[in-house]
Amino acid sequence: MTQNTDFHAPGGLRTRGTVIVVPGRGETRATYARFGARLAFDAYRVRVVDLPDGDPSEVAPFLDALARRLSEAVEGLAAEGADGLPRPLVLVGADLGATALAALLTRASSASASASAGAGAGAAFGSAVGSAVGSAVGAGAGAGAGAAAGAAVWWPDAVVLAGLPGSGSRADGGWADELDVRTHCPTHRGVLTGDASVRRGALSGAVPQDLLTTAYESTAPIPHLLLVGDADPLADRDTITRTAKTLPNARLAVVRGAHHDVLNDLQHRAVAAEVVTFLETLRDDLVPAVTVETSAW
After folding, report:
1. pLDDT digit string (tens) for 34-93?
2. Which of 49, 83, 184, 258 is the most exposed place for a label (fewest CB within 10 A)?
3. CATH classification of the domain holding 245
4. Which of 132, 127, 87 minimizes the C-alpha distance to 106?
5. Percentage helix, strand, coil, to 5, in the chain?
């Protein structure tokens, strides 16, 4: 059975939504303990899952494994309470986790569009991803491009993509060099160094191009929050900006001074606040609760 790391809302508070976190290359569930605890403190139910073990260069099987893992996580969370899954459901990915989530959304959206046209795309995208197609096929053409994808148990209300890597980007050198690429937060550097399960050197190889291409082609209509550090040596800012402008519903937040592990760098409090603000805005149909009328900074 897949293992998860869970963070619960404080006792006595109504859970405001569900967040599932997918780590990046070399990371473990423990990598996101601080992030998960902070979101949970604001009354969100958080579950951190493992990245699939498969080869990400085998795009379809890798995404199929991710879809199964997300489905298991969602079904388990939904079974916890009489009212089912606390919504909204938001998927958060970092590095390869972000790439895989974006690619999964692309595939599911494409499959549902094909299914609504009667193309029978489920088999082409693998069983778990293709399962998103079933309802629209049953309903016939005209089900809408997002309807079949929405039939998948893992299909989210929104997604947060943090630290999307650029094409061919990789970290050279030893562990100290990789830490410098990842984060300058001394606490998090200690977490990574002290975790024997963290796979050192994981950033020395580039994310497979086919997976990246699929990720950056996403036109999924759900709200996207894209997070990137302006000191991230693995990011392609031009590509990320272009993707944010192409997506139907996206917000790109650039974190000043942050490196590749943008959720876990020196600015982690401000970044978590941006994520919580996104979650709260999502609950109110993307209408911000606070707007600035005048400011001296």
Report:
1. 999 999 999 999 999 999 999 999 999 999 999 999 999 999 999 998 899 999 999 999
2. 83
3. 3.40.50.1820
4. 132
5. 45, 10, 45
